[in-house]
Amino acid sequence: MAKVVRTIQRAAADVIDGLGRCGVATVHEAQGRIGLLASRLRPIYPGARIAGSAVTISAPPGDNWMIHVAIEQLQGGDILVLAPTSPCEDGYFGDLLATSAMTRGCRGLVIDAGVRDVRDLTEMGFPVWSKAIYAQGTVKATLGSVNVPIVCAGAPIEAGDVIVADDDGVCVVRRADAASVLDKALTREAAEEGKRRRLAAGELGLDIYSMREKLAAMGLVYE
Question: Measured between alpha carbons, how far is 41 from 24 in angstroms, rounded to an integer?
Fold first, then answer.
């Protein structure tokens, strides 16, 4: 049944923003190396780093009708996340939809399909992580659903989950776990800063991570 869920729960704004500052790699490690979307999703321009609440879209291949429906459901700080119901690379999204989404406070788009108008999107500063850049247009003929559970690029995502995206890719954090994952991510960042100072001072990872004994036990020989 095609449907639009109009009321979703979102994580606290400070938690979302904190996860965004930590970035994908740290968040992924902090939550036990889970939540990554497939590496085929790449940013259309470098340097973007965002986090926000997922407004999910399940859309038929080659049909972007549900993006228009989803934009009405956006709140400030949300991220559109689209999964086609079968593989597709068509350009679902361009500068006109981005203009509409940005007006409602959307922070970006994650789409396991194609986008177009990437020069305009880049100039607008609207970040997108997509499977393809492809000028092929879409139709508006078949219903899908908005704010329902989806699987996007191999990762299960529910509306209101936190999406973190940067040059390293895209990671999803379950809304209920967002605060605890942020705590773990901040702890990890603090530990990494200490190691960074030691490495910059000339210490080796071999010693910081106590690798030498294990290497010797496994048979590594220096000649």
Answer: 13
Beta pairing, strands 128-133 & 150-152: unpaired
CA atoms within 13 A on the CB side of 208: 15
pLDDT in tens, 34-72: 999 999 999 999 999 999 999 999 999 999 999 999 999
pLDDT at 180: 98
Give the chain's radius of gyration (CA, Å).
20
Q: Is residue 55 helix, strand or coil?
A: strand
The secondary structure of 99-143 as a DSSP string is HHHHHTT--EEEEEEEE--HHHHHHHT--EEEEEE-----B--S-
- Give the type of residue at 94: G
Distance CA 182, CA 188 (A): 10
Distance separating alpha carbons of residues 124 and 118, to the nearest angstrom: 10
Which residues, 6+ apart, have CB-to-CB distance to 69 below 8 Å?
A: 4, 146
